[in-house]
Design a protein that fits this description.
The complex is a heterodimer of chains A (about 260) and B (about 400).
Chain A: E1 9-18, E2 21-31, E3 36-40, H1 47-54, E4 61-66, E5 69-70, H2 76-81, E6 84-86, H3 99-106, H4 113-117, H5 125-133, H6 149-162, E7 167-171, H7 179-192, E8 197-201, H8 205-211, E9 214-219, E10 222-227, H9 229-234, H10 236-243
Parallel strand pairs in A: 3-8, 3-9, 6-7, 7-8
Antiparallel strand pairs in A: 1-2, 1-4, 4-5, 9-10
Helix pairs in contact in A: 3-6, 5-6
Chain B: H1 27-52, H2 55-80, H3 88-108, H4 115-121, H5 136-160, H6 166-185, H7 187-190, E1 201-202, E2 205-206, H8 210-236, H9 238-248, H10 250-255, H11 260-286, H12 296-309, H13 316-334, H14 339-353, H15 359-371, H16 374-391
Helix pairs in contact in B: 1-8, 2-8, 2-11, 2-12, 2-13, 3-5, 3-11, 5-11, 8-9, 8-11, 9-11, 12-13
């Protein structure tokens, strides 16, 4: 239903400062097409700020390319139209509209004013497909505000799918979810990554171990470590950052060592 | 590890929700109800009101219906779009003055000047900017297009800079104040505090004749119904859904690839056009347009009517505007001086206890009805819970 072509994300030397405080300090990373990349790091590491920079919410220097397109310097809605979609830590579905209306709006950024002036008749194909993918077909006519927390997150992801986002930037998608919902979300991510590139900010290490294809660890605005889950877990610098001292004790608190 | 899909397996075989309309509102029945509603409204406005109301009361109703047109626009901009516009008087005034200028010039005859200009204007000839209004082909479209153009200019500046909430409200109110100051300051060409008064004719018809007053009333009633039909289409269109989305999550909409500024701009410009049209029709109905009718106080009164009626509904703003305007007349006839306090009290009570306005009473009552059928609802949700349980095998 989407993704005519699969593109990767290339971040080069991105810096973001707020009034002298440097939140992202020269981050470079390559996310190959079709990857499920997890961004982890302690609070204040700059994960969300980096996503803000990629999506145009904050001003940044450096270069962010998705496929052949440079993203930095464009307004938010233009970046979105290039196929970059994101979710937020708090769910931001339109609670006063139905599930179907939410998806229909997400699908419609390229609609002409003439189309907008008319009523929606029936369900657009991509919306119907997304309803199936996220498992909310039965609840299509319900107000989004009545959904359970996990369902709202799925609706958010569904909105990215119909938006035809080819790069999904998900900010803590499984926070507050039950185990079953986490599993379902992970499977959903695997499904959608078949023809899309996915970047996930997440604190849940169990979720990361199961579904990450690659991991980037940020610390104090810089890339600390990068690689597969196993490589990152074995990196002593990562353990130091998470535990505050070099490797010795059990790192059960972070769950980084399985 | 077996994969668990978020979709309950059963959904795969179930057909996609047909029609996908809000629950309990099949499209056909809703359309029929709307038609019936419009027919009822037309019957009341065109048959019942002229029969039961005296000429005096009918003229008052014509005035209220003009206020209701402004209210319909505010319902779109504020109720659906979240833009609390406290300056609709500006657009009402632009439409009103455009119409009044034309009627004054028509009263004065070809080459003549409006009476007030000779009185205190000491002008030898018509000011340049009055001249185009001599032609109805310019003046009539201008009553709507002029306010829309001003709203477009202002909105383009304001929405792109992401001015919203209280800041937008204050800005729009300041605009109303500025317009009044401008009009009063230019007494020689605008009539100053008095405004444009003593309008006698309306495209060749004598406005003192009750028959012609009745005709003006019918034009106003018909226009209001047409605006309601337009608004209904707008609310139910994809744009209408998008507008609500912008109201509730402007940032989110931006991340979906829309420019919320242009979405808001359309609603604001439409509301301004409606206010302009209302102002234009107000002039023949009442025979005057003046700064006191378009300043801050009337601008706020427009909004109070909308809030009382229910800003997000289609009919709420109309009923609220008419009810408040009627109450104002009725109460100030009996207890002069208390109306202002009552109006303030009414506003506070509605905002505090009934944020959806009177229109939400209907919905509240219906929800009670539904809640009174626990059996049906219970079974539905039970069924769903069971489906959820089967969907997730223990991981």
């Amino acid at each position: 239903m989407s993704g005519e072509r699969l593109d990767g994300l290339s971040v080069r030397d991105v810096r973001v400062s707020f009034d002298g405080f440097t939140a992202v300090d020269g981050v470079s990373l390559e996310v190959p097409a079709g990857d499920i990349r997890f961004l982890i790091g302690p609070n204040g590491a700059g994960k969300t700020t980096l996503v803000d920079a990629i999506t145009g919410l904050v001003r940044a220097t450096g270069s962010v390319r998705f496929g052949d397109e440079e993203l930095l310097g464009r307004p938010v809605h233009r970046i979105s139209r290039l196929g970059i979609g994101r979710t937020f830590q708090t769910s931001t579905v339109f609670e006063e509209l139905s599930v179907l209306q939410n998806l229909d709006i997400a699908a419609g950024a390229r609609r002409s004013w003439a189309t907008l002036a008319r009523r929606r008749r029936g369900v657009p194909d991509e919306v119907a497909a997304a309803l199936e993918t996220i498992g909310l077909a039965e609840r299509a006519a319900h107000l989004a505000g009545t959904l359970a927390h996990g369902q709202k997150q799925w609706l958010e992801i569904g909105m990215l799918l119909v938006q035809d986002a080819r790069l999904l930037l998900l900010d803590e998608p499984v926070a507050g979810m039950s185990h079953e919902e986490r599993d379902a979300t992970g499977v959903l991510l695997e499904t959608v990554s078949r023809d899309r590139t996915v970047v996930v900010i997440e604190h849940d290490m169990d979720f990361l171990r199961r579904f990450a294809r690659s991991v980037t660890v940020l610390h104090a605005g810089r890339v600390l470590s990068e690689g597969t889950v196993a490589q990152v877990q074995a990196d002593p610098r990562v353990q130091e950052v998470y535990l505050g001292h070099p490797v010795d004790a059990g790192s059960a608190r972070t769950g980084l060592e399985a | 590890m077996t994969a668990v899909t978020p979709a309950p397996p059963s959904t795969a075989v179930r057909p996609a929700p047909a029609g996908a309309v809000p629950p309990g509102r099949p499209a056909g029945r809703s359309r029929l109800r709307t038609l019936a509603g419009f027919a009822f409204g037309a019957a009341v406005l065109f048959a019942v009101a002229p029969l039961v109301l005296s000429d005096f009361r009918l003229a008052l109703l014509a005035k209220y219906l003009c206020v209701a047109m402004v209210a319909v626009g505010i319902g779109i901009a504020w109720g659906r779009g979240g833009m609390l516009t406290l300056g609709q008087g500006v657009f009402f005034g632009l439409g009103g003055y455009a119409m009044a200028m034309h009627l004054k010039l028509a009263d004065a005859g070809p080459g003549g000047m409006p009476d007030f200009m000779q009185l205190y204007g000491q002008l030898d000839e018509l000011p340049l900017w009055w001249r185009p209004f001599a032609s109805p082909w310019f003046a009539l479209p201008a009553t709507v297009l002029l306010p829309m153009a001003v709203a477009f200019g202002l909105g383009s500046l304001v929405f792109r800079r992401r001015v919203r909430g209280a800041y937008f409200a204050i800005l729009s109110q300041a605009l109303a104040a500025a317009m009044v100051i401008l009009l009063i300051g230019q007494q020689g060409t605008t009539g100053g505090t008095n405004g444009l008064t003593d309008i006698k004719g309306f495209f060749g018809y004598d406005l003192d004749d009750p028959v012609n007053q009745r005709m003006v009333y019918f034009i106003i009633a018909g226009t209001l119904l047409a605006l309601l039909a337009l608004t209904r289409q707008l609310i139910h269109s994809r744009y209408g859904e998008l507008l609500v989305a912008v109201r509730d999550g402007e940032e989110r909409v931006r991340f979906l690839g829309y420019d919320p500024a242009s979405v808001k701009l359309v609603a604001y410009v439409v509301a301004a056009g409606m206010a302009g049209l209302a102002g234009a029709l107000f002039v023949p109905a009442v025979g005057i347009i003046s700064p006191a009718l378009i300043g801050i106080v009337p601008s706020i009164e427009f909004v109070i009517g909308v809030a009382v009626g229910g800003r997000a509904s289609l009919l709420g703003p109309v009923l609220g505007a008419v009810a408040v305007a009627w109450a104002r007349t009725a109460l100030s006839e009996r207890f002069p001086g208390t109306w202002t306090y009552l109006q303030g009290l009414l506003f506070v009570v509605v905002v505090a206890f009934l944020p959806g306005g009177l229109a939400s009473l209907w919905a509240l009552a219906r929800r009670r009805d539904v809640a009174a059928q626990p059996l049906r609802r219970g079974r539905l949700s039970l069924g769903r819970r069971r489906a959820e349980r089967t969907e997730v095998p223990a991981a």
